Amino acid sequence: MKNSNERTIKLNPSQLVNLPVFLLGVLLIPGLFLLNKLLKRYLPSDFVPDQFEPYILNLPVLLSVLFAVYLGYHMLKIYCLRYEISSEELRYYSGILRRKHEFIELYRLKDYRIDRPLIYRLFGLGNLTIYTSDKTTPVFKMQAIANPKKIYKTLRDLVEQNRREKHVFEVD
């Protein structure tokens, strides 16, 4: 039975997870525009058959559009991720077209690890890895979340409270 005044913590990962894709774009897009200029200037007209020439000359533009779609997909994928922590369970929602909902009972959480790479620390973010006794999700990773230490402490307190209420004891 759910408590009517139950507080739920909602978290979303930062788009900083997509930093490698953004950096690839910073390097790739100018290179494609340079390739476009070079092709138009130096491509011999007798080298390429006439019916293929428009396609080859527009290849850098097509590759730029494909990369923009690739980047948009990655951004949308991170935008659609959501974590929720309630007094009973940890919930994970993901997926763009096919949504996936995962639930882990709090009393199943065993251990935690916080990783804070330099780039994440600059923005106050970190990764929280949770080890569980759940069969379907033995390791659960919350990537690029704000205030991972505060979330860890809150989660730990909720786990202890949940174990006391349900009279669950951890046995290794």
Write the layout of secondary structure elements.
Layout: E1 9-11, H1 19-42, H2 53-57, H3 59-79, E2 82-85, E3 89-94, E4 100-105, E5 109-115, H4 118-122, E6 125-132, E7 139-146, H5 148-166
Antiparallel strand pairs: 1-2, 2-3, 3-4, 5-6, 6-7
What does this structure look like?
It contains 5 helices and 7 strands. The chain has 172 residues and is an alpha+beta fold. The chain has 2 domains: 16-77; 87-166, Roll (PH-domain like). It has a 4-stranded antiparallel beta sheet. Strand 2 (82-85) and strand 3 (89-94) form a beta hairpin. Helix 1 packs antiparallel against helix 3.
Total individual domains? 2
First-last Cα distance: 29 Å
Strand order of the largest sheet: 1-2-3-4
- Proportion of beta-strand residues: 15-25%
How many β-strands, per DSSP? 7
Compact summary:
With 172 residues, this protein is α+β, with helices and mostly antiparallel strands. It has helices spanning 19-42, 53-57, 59-79, 118-122, 148-166; strands spanning 9-11, 82-85, 89-94, 100-105, 109-115, 125-132, 139-146.
